[in-house]
Structures
1.
Amino acid sequence: MVIIPRILIGIGALGSLVLAIGLWLGVEQVIPALGISTTDLGGGLVGRATVRADIAGLFGGMGICLLIAVIRSSIHWVNAALVFVCVAISGRFVGLIIDGGGNAVIQPILVEAVIIALLLWLRVGLSKQRG
């Protein structure tokens, strides 16, 4: 039964894409909620460009992979989405080890862990359907 993880991953995909679009179009409104500042010598231009390219790129790429995985019921796209989320959670763990952290740091780790679990659930379900 893959309908439940497909629905939940689809919701996550839409959330990732909405965040990416928000970062592209409304960077100044979205980044404070993420705990990010874009001050630099160029009046924030380099910081905002980096947020739009790197962070929005991560969420956009992950959202696209998640959405295609759900629409196509494709193990290959599930694997691609897993790469994005696993790299992101790895960065969170590196930050946790180096900087420490409290609830503000743990919450995104839990969200990413849930997404990984849902993707693995979908992957197992799709494997059973094909096998």
2.
Amino acid sequence: MSKLISPKDPQSRASLRKILGFPVRSLTLYRAALTHPSFRNENARITQDLEDFDRLEFLGDSILNEVICQKLFEKFPEADEGMLSKLRSILVSQKILSRIAQALELQHVLRISRNLRQNFKDFLKAKLLTDALEALFAAIYFDRGHDKIEAFILKHFEKYFDPKLLFRLDPNPKSTLQEMTLKKWQKLPEYTHAFSDKGVKTTVSAGGRRKASALHKIKRESEVLAARALIRRLRKEFKKVKSRGRRRA
């Protein structure tokens, strides 16, 4: 892969069209969305007339949530408010947004300061690209309208509207499991640990005999894996119970 950030201005109409899949009308909007405040602070004279990045990011975040919520409402008619909220939180998480931003190769057109460029570590890279993607949503909205940005978002989020994939990507399965057990049994899940040369084996239990275990060298990771495994088991169980109830009705 080529350098993550070019010191030169990479935001030509041709490069943006390649990323977006359609021609841009107002180049200034996209320059603003893809120029981080750190770069603007370093280059105030050449960026002073650009729209504010943070304002675009704020609007883009709202546009994203509106499109995602509407799609979830349509796609999962039987999901309750709690489930819809959980699915939305996963879909708009930094984990998925940064994946989409990297797939679009925004790292090649995002202008950031020299200092940030030198410290473009994974955690910072994810945050910067996520912010830029949200700002880009606002730029598309102003440049091409609501229908265009809705289509753009749904195109790039399409594969993530799969509940099985979403729950595998859940950035906080321990929190999800806690919500499930409190709702179902009014109790928190219980974690136990067994340490060995192979690592830490975590067993998490909930609702009586329902258990799942996982092994990892790091204790926290073993807890995450165990929680994710128990979530899968509980969802299958709840689905079967719900299905039996429908047949009886």
